[in-house]
Amino acid sequence: MNRPIGIFDSGVGGLTVVKEVMRQLPQESIVYFGDTARVPYGSKSKDTVTKFSSQIIKFLLEQNVKSIIIACNTVNSNCISELRAMFPKINIVGVVDAGVKMASTVTVNGRIGVIGTQATIDSNRYENLLRINNSNFEVYSKACPLFVPLVEDGWINHLVTRLITSHYLHDLIQEDIDTLILGCTHYPMLKEVIQEIVGDIMLINPAIEVARSIGEILENMDLKSHTNATYSFYVSDQANRMKQTAEMFLGCPIGKVTTVEIEKCYC
Amino acid sequence: MNRPIGIFDSGVGGLTVVKEVMRQLPQESIVYFGDTARVPYGSKSKDTVTKFSSQIIKFLLEQNVKSIIIACNTVNSNCISELRAMFPKINIVGVVDAGVKMASTVTVNGRIGVIGTQATIDSNRYENLLRINNSNFEVYSKACPLFVPLVEDGWINHLVTRLITSHYLHDLIQEDIDTLILGCTHYPMLKEVIQEIVGDIMLINPAIEVARSIGEILENMDLKSHTNATYSFYVSDQANRMKQTAEMFLGCPIGKVTTVEIEKCYC
Questions:
Q1: What's the superkingdom here (chains A, B) (predicted)?
Q2: Domain A5-94+208-265 CATH assignment equals 3.40.50.1860
Q3: How many other CB atoms sit within 10 Å of the CB of residue B39?
Q4: Which sequence spans correspond to the domains of chain B?
Q5: pLDDT tens digits, A31-83
Q6: Among A44, A160, A167, whose Cβ lies nearest the Cβ of B163?
């Protein structure tokens, strides 16, 4: 079953999910879509985010994908149920759900930290989902607005990044959390620095769990690929910029990035 | 002539222009509009930016403004001529034109630096306008993508900001520039740190020149106000966030911020 997995995000952050699927499932082909013309989704209404996401899913289905990963925290938080109802024939898994599941499993003292963009933290989505899993969990959240621009501007391992990380995480560490969810797809790019600052707190990278989860689904449904993987990258704007960033995120050349007029063609 | 001046931007950055108009023209009332629902403009097409801007100008005209300042680099760079043609009865001045004029006047050695967002620097707008003024000017540009998030997250005077500034400006300083244009409305918030790093290079804050220029226009057209000023703030989304940021930018309380459905009401 050599059809690709579809992965999408509002921008480039979902590439950390691509990286993890490449690592765990090296025979699976991937079609990635980043909605770079309409990023960020965090400040947009639920209706708008649902409409944009359904356009992207239509595009991915046209690429004959066998399963879809929502690599965007905002889409997963706002409308994964609506999208599943709109596209009942395809499996859709989300990065937030995966992170929550993993954190709930690994925490010992039930004190969990969540870091993300301002929009993700303000939505309380992680907090609510963790409490649904276990009402005794104590959840501590912190927005880290500089992490995305730091990653996108290439300050991955720099004194500046360590100082900012230390400032952002100070209060969470004081709360005696034993588990910290990296609640934004960019943040795994900073995991070495974050781990250095938080010591032996367990970092949860939802990309790892979502890749594991899609692997299981494909196995169970007998949809696994057994050939050489191919990778295709699509954006709605600024293909050259995506190519550069993708090669930084993935650590390898990715070939051509294609621009799709998603708004006109899939409304 | 106690009608207000209209000032608009894609987001909060234009508040540095508000601050300068308040300082230079303390009797002038201001209506500010920040298009926080549709920010950033930098990645959008010229047609889209023109449409959004004309919606905002219609709103400002309804508030009975006597003159308009475009406090957004992208709008000024893309479509100030089109907007002037669409609204011939109102004076429209722009922050980029003002910055270029001031830098052209103050440079002695003709070596001018420009810093701005990636979109502004990629557009070459400042460079082209400076060269139209004087084809012998040497212009050196540098995108500083972390400055806007640093300002918005409140890292105004911090070791981190000094380290990042020093990194960004290193090459420009080597080029022996004598003048540096702060080509993004957020950057005047960092002017102390920037000045510390660049030494005796002259910093150009286009907000100062645009406020001076609007003062002259009002004087010449006999449109100056002679009463106590009032200030009104409007946004297309996230009024609370704007209130917070505006009070940080302006250093004083600003009262209520009102949300306007700009897309629905002024199309």
A1: Bacteria
A2: yes
A3: 22
A4: 5-96+208-265, 97-206
A5: 999 998 888 887 777 888 999 999 999 999 999 999 999 999 999 988 999 99
A6: A160
